[in-house]
Structure formats: C-alpha cells, structure tokens
Amino acid sequence: MHRVTEQPRDELFLVADLRRAAIRIDPKDARAHSSLGNALNVKGKIDEAIAAHHEAIRLGPDLALVHGNFGRALKAKGELDAAIAAYRESIRLDSRNRTRLARTVLGTLERSEGPRERTMALRLARLAAEPSDPAEPGSVGNAIVFEALAAGYAANGRLPEAVKSGDAPMNYMGNDRSAPDFTVKDRAGRAWRLSDHRGKVVIMNFWTKTCRPCLEEMPSLLDLSERLAERDDVELVAITTDPDWESIRTIFPPQNSLEILFDSDEDDDSLPDVVRETYGTQLFPETWFIDPNGIIRLRVDGPRDWSQPVVEELISAISS
Predict the structure, then answer these.
(1) What CATH number matches the domain at 183-319, 2.120.10.30, 3.40.30.10, 2.60.40.1120, 3.40.630.30?
(2) Per residue in 219-248, pLDDT tens?
(3) Which pTM value belongs to this model?
(4) Distance (Å, rounded) from C-alpha 44 to C-alpha 266?
(5) Of 13, 57, 307, 317, which cross-links 223 as Cys (Cβ 3.0–4.6 Å)?
(6) What is the rounded CA–CA span in Å between residue 241 and residue 184?
(7) How confident is the model at residue 9 (pLDDT cuts 50, 70, 90)?
(8) What are the phi and psi torsion angles at 200 (to 5°)?
(9) How would you class 279 by CB atoms within 10 Å of its CB: exposed for 0-12, middle for 13-18, buried for 19 or more?
C-alpha cells in the first residue's frame, strides 16, 4: 500500500493557502473546494473541512470525487453513517471508487486499535463489497477487502505484505468466477458434491498430514467448526489429499464436527485431483470461500487463526 509521508506543519498550511488561492480565482470550482477540505482534514480542522466539502457538493453534486472526499472527512470525525452515505453516493457516480474505498478499508484495518475502528472497517468493507448491479455478485474491492479481513486482520491484526502492496492474486477474486464443481468422498466413503451445497457459504480448507502449517492451524479450524455447527447457511469442509480416514484419524479428537473429505480415488485414476488439478493448489494449507451462488470470493494462502471472531463476520458479509 502506498504511504503518504507526513508533511511538516508549515507545508500543510501552505497547501491549504494554495487551495484558497485557487478558490479565489474560480469560486465555483467544486474540485478546489474539495481539495481545500482535504487539506483542512489533514491539518485536523475537521469542521472547517466538512464545511468546504459541503460547498464542493453544492457546486458539483454529480462529481464522484467530492462525495468520496466528503466521506473521508466524515469518517475522520467519527460520523460513520454519514460517511457510508457519502461513499455510497461516490460509488454510484463512479464505480471505480469501490476499489478506492477498499484501499481506505485497508488503511483503517491497519491502524485499528479498538472496537470502534474495527466496526468502522467492517462496515466500510461491506459497502466496498456490495455489487453495483444485483446481477453482479462481486467486485474488485470485494477481493481486496475480504483478503484483508480474513487473511490479515484475523491473523493478529497484521495485514500481509501482498495485500498492502495490492499484489494479492486477482485472477479469481473479484472476477465473479464460478467455483469448479467436483465430487469427493467423506470418511465413510459417501459422495460429497460441491454443487449440492448451493445456497450456502462453503469454506474449503485444502491440507495434508505431512504439512506442518496445516496441523498447526487445525485446532483453530476445529474451533471454527464448533462455532458454525448450529448454522445451516455455512458448510465448512477440510479436504485432504491423504487416502482415507484411518491414515489421519489420530490427528483429530474422538468427537469433532469438522467435515473431513478425501481427494483421493485409488479405484479410478481417470478422475482429476480436485486440489492440485481442478483448483491448482501447489502449497498447503489453502482455504477457499465460495458464496451461496457458487462464486469464489476469496482464497487464503497459508495458515490462519480461524478462531478469531472476525472470520464469522466475514462469513456473514459473504452470505448477505
């Protein structure tokens, strides 16, 4: 993520003065008023900033930029409902602002220190993930935000470097890509087919017993399965490349609610490997989030602490 270096105080005043000079040249320039609001916001003069943004909106009500800048000032003041409304109007006028909002969420998550900031980040995340059109269930902002929430904030509040820089894989996230259907077997040998669970959020964790990080994250995955056991709108499965239940049973407690599935069919070599071939997984563990419409929403590479409450909030955001 690009960081804006902190400007010395005298430079901040100079920026604001330059904006005022631009306004004197053209008092009806909405962008100049909005830029002044941004400069005042950075200086901490929030009320003056909001007044400048109000004037910008009065002069340029159809400019997406001024609504987005207004939302940033309202967020700084703590008026989240009003900020959400301003961001939503900015996105309505220019859908590219959805991705810009996602970046704002990343910054908020990175600086979060308390429940208020976290609540703000999650609400902004849900807005960033809203489809522009009901027929389009995803967005680029969705991908960035969900990666930050699940892969970063759930892991001790730290955002991974790939997400900060915007280099997270985007070939499947945010492109409304349908999850390839497949059939595997459960521990009793019964068939389990992905498409049979349409209408639910499906979380698939790919793992194998020779993968130490997989085993390290398994207790938190078991904890998540216990918390989701009473929900009928979520299906959590752990798909292993190990051959059968006997080969892995000592890893698990005698009683557990986690659905274990096996991507191995020694009787039919013609069937493709789901994990390595259908989904292209090279390193374990890997976790996929699929929404109720069968659309891939997120892939998380590497182990995570799935016991964090934010994971359930992520699931709720995907299911809504």
Answers:
(1) 3.40.30.10
(2) 999 999 999 988 999 999 999 999 899 999
(3) 0.52
(4) 66
(5) 307
(6) 11
(7) very low
(8) -120, 160
(9) buried
